[in-house]
Fold:
Amino acid sequence: MHKSVERLLLMSDSEVLGLREQAAAGVRRLPRRSQFSHLLRHFLERFFNHETASPDGDAKARMVLIACAAGLPPFIVAIYLWPVYHAFIRVAVPGNEAIVPGPPPYWVQVNHHLFFVVYSFAVTGIVTVFEWDLFFPDLLDVLVLNILPIPHPRLFFARVTAIAVLLAGFLFDANVLATVVLPAAIDPPSLAGFLAGHALAVGASGLFAAAFIVALQGVLLFVFGDRWFRKISLFVQGAILALLLLTLLLFPVYSDATAVVLGSGSNAAWWFPPFWFVGIYQCLMEGPSALPVHAQLAQLGCELTLGAIALAVLVYPLAYRRRVYQLVQGANARSGRNVIVRSLHKLLHATVLRAPVRRAVFHFIGQTLLRVPRYRIYLVLYGSVGVAIVAATVMRFAVAHGQVHLEVTAEGIRAAIGIAPLWTLAGLRVALTSSGNRQGNWIFRNVHGQPLQFATALEMFSAARIWAFAWSAIVTLTTAVAFRAIAPSELLTWQATAAQLLLAVGLCVVLADAFFLNVTTVAFSGEPQPKAPNLAFTILKYFLFFPPVVTVATVVPVWIGHSMARFALVTIAFTAAHFVLRARHHGIVKEYCRYDGPQEGEGEHHLNLLGLSRLRRG
Structure:
């Protein structure tokens, strides 16, 4: 790679020079940049080098990884389209000469164009939602940047320019590789028309998604204010991410209905944004021969894209000003807890949280999880992906009598009962075992001593498992109850309902034991990993866990049927698995208490500051 290109990608020099080489190079003259340029670079760096996007501080490597991950899927799809449009295998039919299949049918080609539009729409929207919290100033910006001799209009336009550069960069990155490969893959009759249609369609699709989300954020912030916006922000982010991921994951399902929806002029086409931009694609590619529905959808897409951009430009300055004003003014603190929450806490204290150590860690988790941005975004990402996977598993589109109908399958609902606890516990484990403030762990060591006693350590480490089990059970049972409103009649009998409830509770218990089997740290106080985890192995774990869990969730309720003996047998199996995993966890905790000691240098400065080092040695 050329050094200038590498410096551009990494925002730094490609190599570290020794002192002798630096002395031989002479005085290094830094480029003279304007104040606006410094602000622009600062805001762009913050998009990647913040706690949520880069918890380990390696923002540059993470940025390159994200860029490659965003651009590869459409590039690979474009390559795989080559054998679809080019006959490299001749099939001999008896009585005829070798038949060379031509290009795919018209609506299959439209579906190919639709994929690239949907991908650009989803990826740009996901990036916009992920960087949601950085589009407006926070308290640190107000305390640091506003007191510097920087004109407020310059500060505002620098942030706006950084947002535009970020979104334009991801939009370019997600589509440029596929645009280079597609002409050779599909051999369009008009290269100029195809390139214009593809570039404008995918560009307008991503631009509409980004502008709509920024406008929505600005409207919510301006109308509700900062305090209420923070309360609903997580739910709005999760809902938007779930819809975007669902649009992408359900593409193989609804692509079969594209011909019916667009060919019949159904109203569904007017409510699905990717269809608007496919109209732009087909109009520019086909010219006057394009179907009338494509021209109508293209006009609607252009008008709504310009409207979303205009709304974002109008609302963003108003929301920006109100956000800064409320940060300077401060929020009114409110004390007290909800009556329902207090009643629930009393119930938990009398049952599963009777030990003071477990109770303390349990409430520490609940009060910490929603206050740290990195943990909040973990919950949003895992929650939205889980909702999208469950919806994609349950929903099916069927075409009958020229109409598209949404169907719900019994197998999909059974599989969803297994996916819900698996994905919920996976997300909670990532959040609870992620490295927070490792130095803050000194308080636990000094209150309970080092090494920990077995009973104390067991209570401390079990709190995270109980917390995760409680929420996974709430999510899974809520999912099962919600699906009863749309479930087929075969799932509404009391035998089927009892089997689903047994499976939901049993999977929550066993999966919670399995996910937190080797956890020997208090939540959020784990030690950072020496190197970043391998993404391929992380994904492989999910591929290994998903098939068995989904198979059990799909097969076991049918196998139980109306047999009480099989129902009791499954109950015994879940109970036995739970006790085996608990016994194994007890053994792991015993080994930890026997051999674990204070880490070198960890917490010693805290002990010295508090004058507790002698007390600890005594």
